[in-house]
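Troubleshooting: if your tokenizer reports a length mismatch, compare against these two reference records.
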Amino acid sequence: MGIGLLSWLRNRRFAQVVEEEMAQLIVFALEHTSAFLTWLSPIRRLQKIRQLLIRALPHSFRLWFCVRLVENEEDPMDWSYMLRFLANKHLDIPVQQSLPMVGRQLAQIHRGTSEAAMVILMKELDSSLYGGTELDFEVWKKKFRRQLRPSLNFRKGLASKREPRLPPLNPVQPSR
């Protein structure tokens, strides 16, 4: 009986050790498989491609996308924080600058924007946030978006400055 009990305990111990080792092996395989699948994930690849495409866009388009992201904010303070954060991330504008300075830099990035109008808009927001003046924020946001709307007319204004390439049709003969 003693030998049978010892052999049963020995087999039991062996089975327990094998079970523990298999559990560790399974945990190791799952951890590494999940890390590999995360590395292989198409979502991760698509996010990287999206980031590369965003970095390839001109600054004025990146600015427009930043403005579109913050337009859902209802609170002027949250809106200004979000705009500063996104402008810092995508346009390299320091977060610590005053709002009028941010407006000046945004106007320099976007060619069709009046710098004076942007500074005035940002001063209105600044006085609303820190000076306690009233501001109709929805109307203000519309004015702001109107200033920063991107245009696809890259050649706008160039046609009038350019000399004609072809001679006029049916040229007039000089009279003799």
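Reference record two:
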Amino acid sequence: MDKNNNRILPFISDQLYLVVYEKQLVSTMHDAYEKIKKNDDGFGVFIASPSKTADIEQSLVIGAHGARKLVVLVIAMK
């Protein structure tokens, strides 16, 4: 799969499971932006929660643009 195709996964998944190594975590958003700049393609996404939207008829939709459930597994390396 082309690495650019992975960009859409956080937005179309109903449930998103991420596995990260503890050493990849940073303390601040500034540090995170610096890590993104060093990537080959400079692409990164910050996920806070599922989106919520309501149309003109006030029909609430949760997860319209993102996963309804997010699980992050952090692996500690010795």
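Descriptive notes for reference record two:
- The longest strand covers residues 15-21.
- The chain has one domain: 3-75.
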